Amino acid sequence: MDEDTPVPRRRSYDLPLPTPPDVLRRGPLREGAFRSALHEPRTAVVIGRWLGAALLTCFLTGLFSHLLQEPPPWLRDHLPSRPVSGYQITQGLHVISGIAAIPLLGAKLWTVYPKLFEWPPVRSVGHAVERLGIAVLVAALLLEVFTGLLNTLQWYPWPFPFRQTHFWIGWLATGGLLLHVGAKAPLIARHWRRPGPGVAQRRAFLGAVTASVAAVTLTTAGQTVPWLRGLDLFAPRRPDIGPQGLPVNRTAVQAGTTAVAADWRLRVDGPQPYELTMAELLAMPQYEAELPIACVEGWSATARWGGVRVADLLARAGARAGARVRVTSLEAGGPYRVTEMPATYARDPLTLLALRVNGEVLHPDHGYPARIIAPNRPGVLQTKWVARMEAV
Ligand SMILES: Nc1nc2c(c(=O)[nH]1)N[C@H]1C(S)=C(S)[C@@H](COP(=O)(O)O)O[C@H]1N2
Ligand SMILES: [Mo]
């Protein structure tokens, strides 16, 4: 790649550093230690474009997911409850692009890894800073795809909280990526369009990379794309397998909600608080809505939900139209025992306190006696086993 390294312009901050003695140039540091013709910029740029597109998709959809889950107060009341399957699509894309990024990242790193052993290791202070930036970028990207992939398997073999870590490393990786693209802009521009004679194996290599991306995508995307369901070999979930034809993340046994007391009542708090038995809930106007559960882990499944409108329950408590609602589950603990729903969702006619799914009373794993189901919302916020709703 050396012919493509622009002659470094010497700036005042870019102090040259002494070259270490040549006796240290051994193993991979030797001249010509890497013989494949594919360690060259055009290949790196082509794969870099695909990887960049995947990472950008991943970052934007991830940001959207984060904002829905933890909206800052100024945004809270402007989050849209439509399109109904918005989150299903964006989070499906998030996991699809994240999985596709894994072989792309592997191919990109393989293409450029001889650079790790370039000689001299650092030419100047500026060069050292650039290399440090790449180290941070690569570490952040590897950690990001690794934590993301393990999250889709609900496996958390680390002591830190997943979501916050994944969010902040996402920013670190994106910032690092922008700096990297900025620093390499002249090189990228030179190789953006196919230059004169090609490298013999490049076509085969890019073909193999494409095949890998297609393979991992086609065998996992069925967890959210219905027409790929038959190929869903490696995704942790099949959206049609589970009680009542729907998957379950947290079961009633795990949540300790298998035995719902016979005198269960829904409590609704607001200016005029009240309680309702199941019979009273069923006596209210019942509505149906066809809505997906779209889990942050990338699977989604659509079902026909039936129950009472959240808006009706809030109105009955005398809540004002712009009220948010805090929902508390019967669950004893767990991070999703209490969730908060902004006003846009609470007043949406499709947002239900569901009592039935696909025509049957909710299975305990799907939230019996009652659960929240709202359009365009992350699955984690579709609270199951509801005990109490509170207008705030
Ligand atoms: N109370 C409570 N509700 C919950 C959860 C939970 O852990 N506790 N998990 C959520 C998650 S992560 C998802 S994806 C959906 C799954 O709903 P399902 O099990 O009916 O498919 O429920 C949500 N509701
Ligand atoms: Mo979920």
TrEMBL record:
<dbReference type="InterPro" id="IPR008335">
    <property type="entry name" value="Mopterin_OxRdtase_euk"/>
</dbReference>
<dbReference type="InterPro" id="IPR000572">
    <property type="entry name" value="OxRdtase_Mopterin-bd_dom"/>
</dbReference>
<dbReference type="Pfam" id="PF00174">
    <property type="entry name" value="Oxidored_molyb"/>
</dbReference>
<keyword id="KW-0812">Transmembrane</keyword>
<feature type="region of interest" description="Disordered">
    <location>
        <begin position="1"/>
        <end position="21"/>
    </location>
</feature>
<dbReference type="InterPro" id="IPR016174">
    <property type="entry name" value="Di-haem_cyt_TM"/>
</dbReference>
<feature type="domain" description="Oxidoreductase molybdopterin-binding">
    <location>
        <begin position="261"/>
        <end position="391"/>
    </location>
</feature>
<protein>
    <submittedName>
        <fullName>Molybdopterin-dependent oxidoreductase</fullName>
    </submittedName>
</protein>
<feature type="transmembrane region" description="Helical">
    <location>
        <begin position="89"/>
        <end position="111"/>
    </location>
</feature>
<feature type="transmembrane region" description="Helical">
    <location>
        <begin position="132"/>
        <end position="153"/>
    </location>
</feature>
<feature type="transmembrane region" description="Helical">
    <location>
        <begin position="50"/>
        <end position="69"/>
    </location>
</feature>
<keyword id="KW-0472">Membrane</keyword>
<feature type="transmembrane region" description="Helical">
    <location>
        <begin position="165"/>
        <end position="183"/>
    </location>
</feature>
<keyword id="KW-1133">Transmembrane helix</keyword>
<dbReference type="InterPro" id="IPR036374">
    <property type="entry name" value="OxRdtase_Mopterin-bd_sf"/>
</dbReference>
<feature type="transmembrane region" description="Helical">
    <location>
        <begin position="204"/>
        <end position="228"/>
    </location>
</feature>
